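> forwarded from #structure-qc
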């Protein structure tokens, strides 16, 4: 029998192989999962990995069977539900995909991720009237869920509700997670609202002098607005503070 620790190692390695572009490596991943499932037939992670490998190998029906078994074994496993929905979509079965995700929401009514998965499905099939309530459900459960907020932005842009999309982007930028604090400024920059973009990036750069990304975007906004002297001032001030600042040195070189 396989040692449990050995099974975990095999799973991780096979998941890596299954994502490789080489067909023979994907086949090797499937082979390893079949061996594990012979010893532990209801190993959900192995079933999911085998399904992924089978799907990549064009064995769509086999992939669907593996995911059906995974969900029968662990009905609240959202990852398997999402994978099964994607497989059914690939088989031109949107009703079947929807049924899987609706059941996932029923299984986990307090899960923002389940509601969001259903919302993203509706977004994919362009059923906006059904997508927005599911996003609202996800956000009622987790108001700061960035993926849900970004999905809401996509819905509102598709519906040509630009002002509402902009308000949501402001909400994302205001979250404590600084990973997304530049998103509203990028929206302004992409829409050629240069004066507003400059103010937004300047606010971020002043609040966090070590935020090189905000400073870089501020320089880009200045350059787009043909305010070269202001861009140079930002760069030279950064170099004055740190002569080894690679980002500032690169931008200085790009100015000439």
């Amino acid at each position: 029998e396989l040692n449990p620790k050995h099974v975990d190692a095999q799973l991780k390695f096979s998941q890596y192989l299954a994502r490789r572009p080489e067909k023979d490596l994907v086949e090797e991943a499937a082979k390893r999962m079949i061996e594990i499932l012979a010893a532990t037939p209801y190993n959900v992670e192995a079933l999911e990995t085998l399904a992924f490998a089978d799907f990549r190998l064009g064995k769509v029906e086999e992939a669907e069977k593996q995911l059906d078994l995974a969900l029968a074994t662990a009905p609240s496993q959202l990852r398997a539900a999402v994978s099964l929905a994607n497989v059914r979509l690939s088989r031109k079965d949107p009703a079947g995909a929807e049924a899987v995700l609706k059941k996932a929401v029923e299984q986990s009514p307090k899960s923002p991720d389940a509601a969001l998965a259903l919302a993203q499905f509706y977004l994919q099939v362009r059923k906006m009237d059904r997508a927005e309530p599911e996003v609202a459900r996800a956000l009622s459960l987790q108001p700061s869920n960035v993926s849900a907020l970004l999905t809401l932005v996509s819905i509102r842009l598709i519906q040509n509700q630009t002002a509402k999309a902009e308000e949501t982007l402001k909400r994302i930028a205001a979250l404590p997670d600084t990973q997304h604090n530049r998103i509203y400024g990028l929206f302004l920059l992409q829409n050629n609202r240069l004066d507003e973009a400059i103010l937004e990036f300047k606010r971020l750069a002043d609040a966090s002098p070590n935020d090189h990304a905000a400073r870089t975007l501020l320089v880009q906004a200045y350059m787009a607005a043909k305010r070269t002297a202001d861009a140079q001032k930002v760069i030279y001030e950064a170099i004055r503070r740190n002569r080894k600042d690679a980002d500032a040195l690169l931008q200085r070189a790009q100015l000439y």
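QC bot note: The mean pLDDT is 92. Residues 101 and 118 are 6 Å apart (CA to CA).
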